[in-house]
Design the sequence.
């Protein structure tokens, strides 16, 4: 049977055509002729603007960049961030993640959970390599963009490696570009699972919203200000979940983060998070910052390690982050162990469907 995903494109072109054939056999010749005329008009007037969000279904045939055959040249290569953001944005908001090919299973897992909260349509996958760009756009046309330069697909993106640094250091640049285009942007790492709609927690109209990566338990009514630095003079804000409005304040924060990364790239040893914390520290008096609730956005160092706390805060969790663990297989196993590895049983809830 054909599998259709709520409010999104069919992940599978064959299911599309089987439905069309059956439908056509039920139609009278007159209706068919009308339809034909309609499609000719559509072809003449609409196809040149298939990148527009006004046209909900991308043209899957001749001129489309769909990579139905991998041997054919594809023009997803020329898909710009501006086109892609315009295509996916809803209510002026884009949800982005950045993914390299080895992380597609995590992307799919995260997407299932995003789809359950009905926010998948605004997801834009920033592909770190061409294999990811083509794979995602083949399954889900228009939802992936590559901002050059691309990484080598084969490079495993291990935390702490130089490759990982190159990968994460591009994050503030991509976010700044989306802000400059005028969109709100929600950034997520893909080793996450949504249990509730995180947008309900974006109270007020602050410039930037973020989460604390410290495991220390806070009272449920903790302050939403930037936390004070610890004994070592540092904060541990996570660079993993960030929501920004297209304000001067949010842009200044991203620019300062880029400056900090460039100034201290050696000291940060492949991690963009300390630079983000220094950027928050330096701009705290100019930028309207908002710390999200710990119960809703717990660090993995708390959620996966303190069962008592998880029980006490039951029903309050919005996004679970599978951090405070090293290694791809360990991460996957932990999601399995906690019932958060959704792709084995629920892949069809993802707009990407099953990845084989
Ligand atoms: C990191 O990026 C620099 C400059 O873009 C490049 O020369 C270098 O080869 C990259 N390193 C890795 C490990 O990807
Ligand atoms: C949180 O609640 C406690 C007791 O209910 C109160 O004493 C404290 O001042 C509150 N803290 C904040 C930041 O509102
Ligand atoms: C910034 O960091 C310095 C050094 O740790 C600290 O003294 C200062 O209070 C921080 N400022 C803010 C706004 O957190
Ligand atoms: C775990 O959570 C409970 C309940 O919040 C807390 O009392 C306890 O101190 C926490 N344990 C650790 C090791 O942080």
Sequence:
């Amino acid at each position: 049977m054909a599998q259709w995903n709520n409010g999104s494109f069919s992940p599978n072109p064959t299911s599309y055509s089987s439905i069309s054939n059956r439908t056509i056999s039920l139609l009278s010749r007159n209706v068919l002729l009308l339809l034909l005329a309609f499609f000719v008009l559509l072809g003449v007037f609409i196809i040149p603007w298939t990148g527009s969000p006004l046209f909900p279904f991308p043209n899957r045939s001749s001129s489309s960049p769909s990579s139905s055959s991998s041997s054919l040249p594809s023009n997803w290569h020329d898909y710009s961030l501006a086109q892609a953001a315009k295509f996916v944005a809803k209510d002026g908001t884009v949800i982005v993640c950045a993914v390299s090919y080895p992380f597609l299973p995590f992307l799919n897992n995260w997407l299932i959970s995003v789809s359950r909260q009905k926010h998948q349509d605004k997801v834009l996958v920033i592909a770190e390599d061409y294999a990811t760009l083509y794979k995602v756009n083949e399954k889900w046309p228009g939802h992936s963009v590559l901002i050059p330069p691309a990484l080598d697909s084969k490079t495993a993106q291990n935390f702490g490696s130089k490759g990982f640094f190159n990968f994460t250091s591009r994050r503030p640049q991509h976010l700044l570009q989306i802000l400059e285009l005028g969109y709100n942007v929600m950034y997520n790492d893909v080793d996450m699972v949504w249990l509730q709609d995180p947008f309900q927690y974006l109270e007020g109209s602050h410039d930037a919203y973020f989460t604390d990566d410290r495991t220390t338990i806070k009272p449920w009514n903790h302050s939403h200000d930037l936390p004070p630095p610890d004994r070592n003079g540092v904060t541990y804000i996570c660079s993993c979940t960030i929501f920004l409005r297209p304000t001067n304040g949010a842009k200044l924060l991203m620019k300062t983060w880029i400056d900090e990364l460039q100034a201290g790239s050696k000291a940060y040893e492949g991690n963009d998070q300390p630079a983000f914390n220094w950027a928050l520290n330096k701009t705290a008096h100019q930028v309207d910052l908002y710390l999200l609730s710990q119960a809703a956005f717990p660090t993995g160092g708390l959620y996966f390690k303190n069962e008592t706390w998880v029980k006490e805060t039951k029903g309050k969790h919005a996004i679970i982050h599978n951090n405070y663990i090293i290694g791809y297989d360990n991460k996957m196993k932990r999601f399995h162990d906690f019932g958060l590895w959704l792709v084995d049983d629920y892949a069809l809830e993802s707009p990407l469907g099953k990845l084989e």
Remarks:
- Residues 29-45 form the longest helix (17 residues).
- The two ends are 18 Å apart (CA to CA).
- The chain has a mean pLDDT of 82.
